[in-house]
Amino acid sequence: MNSFDLLAQFGAESVQFVSDEARGLRAIIAVHSTRRGPAFGGIRTLSYSTLHAALTDALRLAQHMSYKAALADLRAGGGKIVVMKSERLDRRLAFIALGRAIDRLGGSFFTGLDVGTTYEDLEDVAKGTARVASHLDFGKATARGCVAALKAAFEHLEQPGLKGKTVAVQGLGSVGLELAHMLAGAQARVLVADIDDERAQGAARETGAQVVKPGEILAVSCDALAPCALGGALTLQAVKSLRCRVIAGSANNQLASPAAAKALHARGIVYVPDFVANAGALIKGVLEHQAGRELSFDVVDRVGDSTKAVLDRARSEGRPPSEVAERIALERLA
User: N or C end of the chain: smaller count of CB under 10 Å?
Assistant: First the structure.
């Protein structure tokens, strides 16, 4: 499949390849949609086996950013930048060069943090462009959105509030750890798991959470599961072993297949689509850009409204929330 076929597959508008061999920079700037406004999307820095794998990842993530913006009813589109990590990458100079490439887009693309990229990297990007959210607390904003999604899901089940609920958090990166703190503050009973046992034990000491082995977190008995690690965790086999009523977390691409979505629906488990639940940082970043000033984290709570709209329509149509969320996004992007 060539690059044009991939663009057509994901419904994307454009792709720009950025190369600076002297600095070891090989990056892809993917723009999915600018129909509702300029594209917003973070910089993901990872090792990829092939250029095709990197391009596919960039386009898939850009598409989800468009869906995320549309479902949050933002006047913005979606994009994503992928930096192909290698031993030749001179991070400081490479990210400055990447900033200049973003700047040449003339305000049609705004960027921020994503997996594998650091705040120091963003500071370097900012030396090449002003179109970067280098100081936004992405972890806190995303976690707060997940809390709003969880609250809306329990209200949908007519079991309002988080107090006394057992919530299992899978993955304790910047979002998962922040979410564990917020849940503990809401008087929920928190279970945590991470492949780094020291991190899990530290989170337990900080929040009073109970540590669960990473291989057992998906099958633990709880009211809600919050996947905050890598995507694809919700396989058909995993869905069969779930013992929760609600799923809402920050991980991207949580569903391993459309069949997993149907299996969740058949079991009566309320699934908040990832691009609804994890929209907090995007919402805050877009609204701050439009306002020209820093805003309070309260603006992220609109994730709860998006969640309610998706779950209510899914119930009325008798279809999985993931299908309904995608349909709403496509309607707004038309």
Answer: C
Q: Which regions of the chain carry the CATH code 3.40.50.720?
A: 139-279+304-333
Q: Tokens 């949050």 — which residue?
A: 72
Is 80 exceeded by the pLDDT of residue 1? no
Length of the chain equals 334
Q: What angle do CA 195, 51, 49 make, to 5 degrees?
A: 40
* β-bridge mates for residue 14, sequence order: 31
The active-site residue out of 80, 85, 151, 165 is 80
Query: 146-162 burial, b for 16+ CB within 10 Å, e for fewer?
Result: bbbbbbbbbebeeeeeb
CATH architecture, range 3-63+75-135 = 3-Layer(aba) Sandwich (3.40)
pTM equals 0.93
Q: Which residue, among 174, 233, 222, has the nearest Cα to 199 in the 3D structure?
A: 174
The tokens for 248 are 């809402």
Q: 80 catalytic, yes or no? A: yes
Question: The CATH number of 139-279+304-333 is which of 3.40.1190.20, 3.30.43.20, 3.90.1310.10, 3.40.50.720?
Answer: 3.40.50.720
Using CA atoms, how far residue 139 sits from 75, 123, 226, 288, 326, in Å, is 22, 17, 14, 16, 24
| Alpha-carbon span 55 to 150, nearest angstrom | 33
Residue of 133, 78, 139 lying closest to 297 (CA atoms):
139
- Are 36 and 69 within 8 A, CB to CB? yes
What does the pLDDT look like over 231-275, one tens digit per residue?
889 999 999 999 999 999 999 889 999 999 999 999 999 999 999
pLDDT at 282: 97
